[in-house]
Amino acid sequence: MLEITNLVKRYGHNEPVLKGLDLEVDGSSVVSIVGASGAGKSTLLRCINRLVEPTSGSIKLNGHQLVNLRGSELRHSRRRIGMVFQGFNLIDRLTVMENVLSGRLGYVSLFQALTRRFPQSDIDRAFHLMERVGIAHYANNRADQLSGGERQRVAVVRALMQEPEILLADEPTASLDPKTSQQIMSLLQTLASEMSLPVLINIHNVTQARMYTDRIVGMRHGQMIFDGSPKDFNQDALDAIYGGIESPDEDAAEAGAQTQEATV
Amino acid sequence: MTTSRTATDMTSGRVWKKPPFIANPWLRYGLIAVTLTYLYWAFSTLPFDWARISEGLPRAAKIFGGAFPPSFERAGLLWTGFKESFQIAFLATLLGVFLSIPIAVMAAKNVAPKPVYLLGRAIIIISRSFHPVIVAILFVAAVGFGPMAGILTLTLYSIGFVAKLLAEEIEEIDWGQVEAMRSVGAGYLKMLIYGVFPQIMPRQIGLSMYQLDSNLRASAVVGIVGAGGIGGTLMNAFGRYDYDFAFAILLMIIGIILVSEGISGWVRKKVW
């Protein structure tokens, strides 16, 4: 159970990116967070595992306060939060197996990490999970030899190696082609129910959000403006989240075209 | 739409010139004037003694004449000198590269806190500020003649060079991999081992090879001031007017540098 109350994040003296956000995620629900670029989706996820320091507010995971943790306490709570990134963020020059085992870095000693002598139970778990997502035959390949979809699977397995209590996915499919991104979304969905793991997914693709998740949270300007099931997510909600936001490039191009016409 | 735009451009006949490198014309022409004045002043005041230069030319010809054919008679001396140079270069490279890793981490802005960063930069600046020959003179004075002084000199030289370039490499890594390691709960050292070192490894190996190369060359030079190795032998050969032997040494140095360049180039291509 994740409870976020009155979360505020402000970079420097700028307008806050998150303005007093409240969010509760319980059980094994798959929640998608949608919103335009700059709405604060990524900042929200990064506040949870403290890659970004929240300015104020409270984030509790299964009763443990995550804000204000330091040093080893912070690392111990990070072990329990898996994260999947848009750019996969694999260690390109290491093997797939090393990447997967790196999910255990919070649990093993420095010597074990340095010499790659991970406990047998970790190796068993790694093979089991890699077989589950169909990448076990790549164990000794270098991570950068894999295709995008395969690499995101490695990243998912790495996160699952942490034995997480929650999984955060920051636009996990944005660098993938449509078909592969559907596969990854459905993988996240089934893994969540198999392991009864709550999953938070930042996503731009509203169709996929509707299809693969149980709940949609819509954000705009650092505030939550929609929270409901996919069937309630109608055109009005979509307009509220994305409406009125026009890309400045298009405006400029149109203006330019008009001036051209005027001169002719 | 497109056709009308082309039509407008055709009629107006606009010209375009690359904007000057220095926008301010006063500054631009001023700099050119200052440079020309300086060159005129420098050439007019430097004492070029053409008589002495013309006297020296035949002397140089005689030296080069004496160097032909190169003499490999004292191969034993040649061998001992080169062996010592190799030892100095290898040991100094190993030590220097090994020590440069922690210093590079200290001197990389993105992974080191500010005070540590400043300390790391200071170490690099100090070890880079003097040419190896000057450092060698200091070490010869401190630890006496011989290879020890050479090893210390070239270790310092390697640290300065390798640590600086490695620190810059660390500052340019893909930060996502570091974030991923932080997100799994890895501490600082584990983050370095998994998130940083694999990314800089090819560069590290390339730099080590290059440094070995460079240390081989430099070990010949620092030998001249008494820090051991082939440089001392070369200096003695010149001192005794054994130009044929000196030429043999120079040929050997060139040969060894060529071979080591070839090897290091090959290794750097293989590692990626």
Automatic annotation (TrEMBL), chain A:
Its main location: membrane. It is found in: Cell inner membrane. One of its GO terms (cellular component) is plasma membrane. Its EC number is 3.6.3.27. It is a peripheral membrane protein. Keywords: ATP-binding, Cell inner membrane, Cell membrane, Hydrolase, Membrane, Nucleotide-binding, Translocase, Transport. It holds the Pfam family ABC_tran. Residues 2-246 form the ABC transporter domain. Gene3D superfamilies: P-loop containing nucleotide triphosphate hydrolases (3.40.50.300). GO terms for molecular function: ABC-type phosphonate transporter activity; ATP binding; ATP hydrolysis activity. The keyword Disulfide bond does not apply. Transmembrane segments: none annotated. NCBIfam families: ABC_phnC. This is Phosphate-import ATP-binding protein PhnC. The lineage of its organism: Bacteria, Pseudomonadati, Pseudomonadota, Gammaproteobacteria, Pseudomonadales. The gene is phnC.
From TrEMBL, chain B:
Keywords: Cell membrane, Membrane, Transmembrane, Transmembrane helix, Transport. One of its GO terms (cellular component) is plasma membrane. It comes from the Bacteria. Residues 82-264 form the ABC transmembrane type-1 domain. GO terms for molecular function: ABC-type phosphonate transporter activity. CDD domains: TM_PBP2 (cd06261). PROSITE patterns: ABC_TM1. The chain crosses the membrane at residues 26-43, 88-112, 133-160, 218-239, 245-267. It is a multi-pass membrane protein. It is found in: Cell membrane. InterPro entries: MetI-like (IPR000515), MetI-like_sf (IPR035906), PhnE/PtxC (IPR005769). The keyword tRNA processing does not apply. Pfam families: BPD_transp_1. Belongs to the binding-protein-dependent transport system permease family. This is Phosphonate uptake transporter.
